[in-house]
Amino acid sequence: MARLKHVELRGQIVAACREMNVLGINQGTSGNVSARVAGGFLITPSGVAYDEMAPNQVVEMDLEGGHRGEQRPSSEWRMHRDIYRDRPEAGAVVHTHATFCTALACLHREIPAFHYMVAVAGGASIRCANYATFGTQALSDNMLKALDGRAACLLANHGMICFASDLGKALALAVEVETLARQYWHARQAGKPVLLSEEEMTTVLERFESYGQQGGDPEP
Length: 220
Known about the structure:
Blueprint: H1 7-23, E1 32-37, E2 40-43, E3 59-62, H2 77-86, E4 92-96, H3 99-106, E5 128-129, H4 137-146, E6 152-155, E7 159-164, H5 167-190, H6 198-208
Parallel strand pairs: 5-6
Antiparallel strand pairs: 1-2, 1-4, 2-3, 4-7, 6-7
């Protein structure tokens, strides 16, 4: 029997999936997680409950869409594959059906610059990708357009997706985007949120370039 590759990273993916449910940004078997490896990526399998998932069930795929082993990859593998192809800085991808992100996505609403932390996703807004059927190349193509210059986006009538350099950062970004979606949702219930100007968001984005670096300004 061939020796299982990337054992530690597989375990981290399983742990991240379970953490998504604990954090309340995902539920059941919805959503999926992946991490880049040499020549491709590892991704959660299709239809396996996170509490029952084992590291050996995580699927290894190449960047052409091929996969190894008997387990089928998540139906959303195209989105993950295309992020790794298009964004060399991406080391991990998290896709969830987080409640407030999904609610806004069902309204086809982006998250605008109502709060400066919107810049955590890389721009002055968190866009909503146009709708396409789950698991299709059309959905992935729409996602890439919405991710242009961004590290996260909503997916119309579906959920959200984000990426970062590693699993921990990708999961943290997913939590932050859901928090922003919840805050924006509640702000809209009270009235029309006052949006920050384009000039202010440009300033924020510039400050975020040194965010968390040694000797820089305190964290926002």
